[in-house]
Amino acid sequence: xxxxxxxxxxxxxxxxxxxxxxxxxxxxxxxxxxxxxxxxxxxxxxxxxxxxxxxxxxxxxxxxxxxxxxxxxxxxxxxxxxxxxxxxxxxxxxxxxxxxxxxxxxxxxxxxxxxxxxxxxxxxxxxxxxxxxxxxxxxxxxxxxxxxxxxxxxxxxxxxxxxxxxxxxxxxxxxxxxxxxxxxxxxxxxxxxxxxxxxxxxxxxxx
Length: 207
Fold this sequence. Notes:
Layout: H1 8-63, E1 78-90, E2 93-105, H2 116-206
Antiparallel strand pairs: 1-2
C-alpha cells in the first residue's frame, strides 16, 4: 500500500475513491457475468458449427462415393474468393459477424465431367461457407474469452485491492486523527491545570 498523508483532505479523498469503487464494482461484476453467459453461448455455437461441417462432409462422402475415383479430378473446382465480415457489440466486446461469402467455380465441360459434378460443386460451396462460419465462431469465442478475462481482472482489482486499500487508508487516518484529537484534549487539560496552578500560586503569594 502506498504511503498516505494523514490529513482531513486525504480522508475526504479516500472516502470519495471508496464510494466510486463501490459504485463501479456491481456494474463490472454484472458485465463479467453477462460476458460469461455470452461466452458459453459462443462456445456452444462454435461446437455446433464445427459439428455441422463434419456432418456435411460425411454426407458429401456418403452421397458422392465416386469422389474416391482418382481419375476424376475435382480439385480447384470451387475457390473461396471473398469473405466480408461485419461487427457487433456484445456487452462491450466487438465480435465478428459473417456478412457475405463469394465462391468462384472453375469452368468445366458439361460433357467432360459426369452429371454428379454439379451436385458436388453445390456441396463444396456449402462446405466452404460452413468452414468460414467455424472460423468466425472460433474468433468470437477467443474475443469473448479475452473480454471475460480482462473484466474478471478488473473486478478482482476493485474487490481485492482498491476497495480494501481505501478502507485501510480511511481506518489509519481515522485512528491518527482520533489520536491527535485525544492528544489535543489532554494537552488542553494539562494547560488548563497548569494555568490554574499558576493562578493559585500567585494568589497565595499575594496573600
